[in-house]
Amino acid sequence: MTRADLTPARLPRGFADRGADELAATREMAEAIRRTYELWGFEGIETPFFEYTDALGKFLPDQDRPNAGVFSLKDDDEQWLSLRYDLTAPLARHVAENFQRLAKPYRSYRFGPVFRNEKPGPGRFRQFLQFDADIVGAGSVSADAEMCMMMADTLEAVGVKRGDYVIKVNNRKILDGVMEAIGLGGDDNAGRRLTVLRAIDKLDRLGPEGVRALLGAGRKDDSGDFTKGAGLDDEASSRVLSILRAKAESNLHTARKLFEEFASTEAGQEGARELSAIATLVEQAGYDGRVVIDPSVVRGLEYYTGPVYEAELTFTVSDEKGQPIQFGSVGGGGRYDGLVGRFMAENTPATGFSIGVSRLLAALRALQGPEAPRPLGPVVVLVLDRDQIGRSMAQAATLRAAGISAEVYLGASGMKAQMKYADRRKSPCVVIQGSDERDKSEVTLKDLIAGSAAAAAITDRAEWTESRPAQVTVAEERLVEQVRAILSRHE
């Protein structure tokens, strides 16, 4: 094969490889989320990556083109299949299929990748991880209040301190009241309503003037791409923006202010009453200040029918150039009483939220800064004599039997290269057994972490040779005991 015949190694646009460190950090964070969900009585479920395209719903972008917004293909029976766009629509399908056997209200959580066939950009990928929790079959807003409180507990469980986040709550019925007030009620205006909602949802990123442009004729971004607006006039746009600034000094005061604002619209008043009920429950449960009524919260998907909520990180960190950055929203959700009803005659109330795992992980890493502990790799058993590799394998097996991650060096290089390999593997220590140690049934252990620190203080080769920093020789039968002692120093 000539060089010209080689297939180029290239990553698909909008996708990313994930290394061992990120996988370990994701696994640790996901486990903390799972434990929190289960403390609240939720049970796990896994749905497939693919669903029938029509099961994903008419609420996806560009619904008339199966390959826009979602990645789709035709099965051999001419049925359109799509990679799941989120974890909510597959849950609705699952509940409808298994409705009679599920205990209701049905509390479940799901974790896994979702796929979006959209334009990628910095921090915007076509595949990413979500961790969802939902309650299906509870029509009371007490379920929405509970979801918001669980979101608060979840953020604290993964390491976000109280005061460094806020769970914001609004109600789509409030927004329906806005739509009625500006003449966008009824089925004929569904498309424009969705455009308005998506414009409002960009308030944090674009600011009031950017949202005003999207409410009006449209907006051109920095790349030159133009997004068509909702076509509202200045008066209607101002009415929408004024609602977003209705936040008062307390949750109950905000709900009361919204009730007064929508005295003439039934939907708006109902939404304000529900927010008032949530505010009372939050206060009684001790989550006041952690869960806040905020009229600027929208959530872009059309299927939300009541309370909507968003988890926002409020702390500021510095980027590589020392510039302050905020991560903002790392998750959200809301009530979607009509989604399960798409599959069955009986409508079923539901509410739930989704955590953007990759975004939350990036925020936690930024919060920890450069001092974040690095995950340790396996203990590496060096091989100084190739004809004795079986003995090295036995030592590694002894460590693994004791629950210690260990591997044998399988390359063909000498000791210096093996030590470099162990360092790249982030090994806490190496096991060395040459012929002298073998004759005495001994092993030499070198603590690579402590040794690196000690070596930094040594300036003379003779001192290095004499001190052999962080190195100890013990009887082979004490291998596990001594390795555990080294690991305990670096936990």
Summing up helix and strand content along with how strands pair, one would put the structural category as alpha+beta
CATH superfamily of the largest domain: Bira Bifunctional Protein, Domain 2
Strand order of the largest sheet: 1-5-6-15-14-11-7-10
Helix percentage range: 25-40%
Shape annotation: elongated
Major β-sheet annotation: 8 strands, mixed
What is the fold named in CATH at topology level of the largest domain?
Answer: BirA Bifunctional Protein, domain 2
CATH class of the largest domain: Alpha Beta
- Give the overall pLDDT as a whole number: 87
- Unreliable stretches (pLDDT < 50, length at least 5) are 455-467
Determine the N-to-C terminus distance. Answer: 49 Å
Q: Count helical runs.
A: 17
Number of domains: 2
Q: Tally of extended strands?
A: 20
Strand content: 15-25%
**Proper CATH architecture of the largest domain:** 2-Layer Sandwich
Radius of gyration: 28 Å
Compact overview of the structure:
Residues 27-375 form the Aminoacyl-transfer RNA synthetases class-II family profile domain. This protein is an alpha+beta fold. The protein has helices at residues 20-39, 53-56, 88-97, 141-157, 172-181, 190-200, 203-215, 234-244, 251-261, 266-284, 357-368, 389-401, 415-424, 435-439, 448-456, 461-467, 479-488; strands at 43-44, 50-52, 72-74, 80-83, 106-115, 127-136, 165-171, 218-220, 226-228, 291-293, 307-313, 317-318, 324-325, 328-335, 350-356, 379-381, 406-408, 429-432, 442-447, 471-475.
